[in-house]
């Protein structure tokens, strides 16, 4: 299966445009992936064409292509290892600013870029704001080698934490989905995740897990698009 993308596109657009207020001339920016981030990249490109001077580090090949097409100058973390700001979407965000990301398949690069940034701003439509994470299946990026053993280890770790649910190897267009890094993704339908920190620790301890979609202690601002405007939340 492929993780389902849902939400209100008008709200996504409002959130993306609202994030432009966080951008300053001369910044080095992490550019997120996904539908809401695409809106931001397009809006940022318009600002660049109007004279804004920034440089961006894309979190996926798709974002790199889009950013290039709208005139945003790009660099890499090798050339600019410390970024001022990352603007990215999320599949879920709770009131403690814990996120589930990875519905689009770019979670590993997204987390690397976010970790290299002084600040992370999350842009979401109102439906992504939740009380407890887990309604959206948790993406887990895994190495193809030893996939069966890794899957069993994930299931065992979840069971120890009282979590159950289907572990589905992501498919796209009838084939196993492959990330930009050459990995696969297991979408874990755990339902409610009452202790994201414990689950993150357990998953990170599994050798075949390259990264998981729990982004904890990373986001400091959330811009939520609503039908009548935007709401800015700060941690």
Automatic annotation (TrEMBL):
Stored InterPro entries: NagB/RpiA_transferase-like (IPR037171), Ribose-5P_isomerase (IPR050262), Ribose5P_isomerase_typA_subgr (IPR020672), Ribose5P_isomerase_type_A (IPR004788)
Q: Which UniProt keywords apply?
A: Isomerase
Q: Which residues of this protein are catalytic?
A: 110 (proton acceptor)
* SUPFAM superfamilies, sorted: D-ribose-5-phosphate isomerase (RpiA), lid domain (SSF75445), NagB/RpiA/CoA transferase-like (SSF100950)
List ligand-binding residues for substrate: 33-36, 88-91, 101-104, 128
GO terms classed as biological process: pentose-phosphate shunt, non-oxidative branch
The first-level EC class reads isomerase
Recorded hits in Pfam families, A to Z, give: Rib_5-P_isom_A
Catalytic function, reaction form: aldehydo-D-ribose 5-phosphate = D-ribulose 5-phosphate
Q: In which pathway does it act?
A: Carbohydrate degradation; pentose phosphate pathway; D-ribose 5-phosphate from D-ribulose 5-phosphate (non-oxidative stage): step 1/1
GO molecular function terms noted in the UniProt entry = ribose-5-phosphate isomerase activity
Instruction: List its EC numbers.
Output: 5.3.1.6
Query: What family does the entry list?
Result: Belongs to the ribose 5-phosphate isomerase family.
What is the stated purpose of this protein? Answer: Catalyzes the reversible conversion of ribose-5-phosphate to ribulose 5-phosphate.
Q: How does it assemble?
A: Homodimer.
Entry's HAMAP family? Rib_5P_isom_A
Name used for this protein in its record? Ribose-5-phosphate isomerase A
Please report the organism this UniProt entry assigns to the protein: Bauldia litoralis
Source taxonomy: Bacteria, Pseudomonadati, Pseudomonadota, Alphaproteobacteria, Hyphomicrobiales
């Amino acid at each position: 299966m492929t993780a389902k993308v849902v939400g209100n596109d008008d709200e996504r657009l409002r959130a993306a445009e609202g994030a432009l207020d966080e951008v300053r001339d001369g910044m080095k920016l992490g550019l997120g992936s996904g539908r809401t981030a695409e809106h931001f990249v397009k809006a940022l490109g318009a600002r660049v064409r109007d004279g804004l001077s920034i440089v961006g580090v894309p979190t996926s090949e798709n974002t790199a292509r889009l950013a290039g097409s709208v005139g945003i100058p790009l660099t890499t973390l090798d050339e600019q290892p410390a970024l001022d700001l990352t603007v990215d979407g999320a599949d879920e965000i709770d009131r403690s600013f814990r996120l589930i990301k990875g519905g689009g398949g770019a979670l590993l690069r997204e987390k690397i870029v976010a970790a290299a940034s002084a600040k992370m701003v999350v842009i979401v439509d109102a439906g992504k704001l939740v009380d407890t994470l887990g309604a959206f299946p948790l993406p887990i990026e895994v190495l193809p080698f030893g996939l069966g053993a890794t899957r069993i280890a994930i299931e065992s770790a979840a069971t120890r934490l009282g979590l159950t649910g289907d572990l589905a190897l992501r498919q796209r267009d009838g084939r196993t989905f492959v990330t930009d890094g050459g990995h696969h993704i297991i979408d874990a339908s755990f339902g409610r995740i009452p202790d994201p920190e414990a689950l993150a620790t357990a998953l990170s301890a599994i050798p075949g897990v390259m990264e998981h979609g729990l982004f904890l202690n990373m986001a400091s601002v959330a811009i939520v698009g609503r039908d009548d405007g935007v709401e800015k939340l700060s941690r």
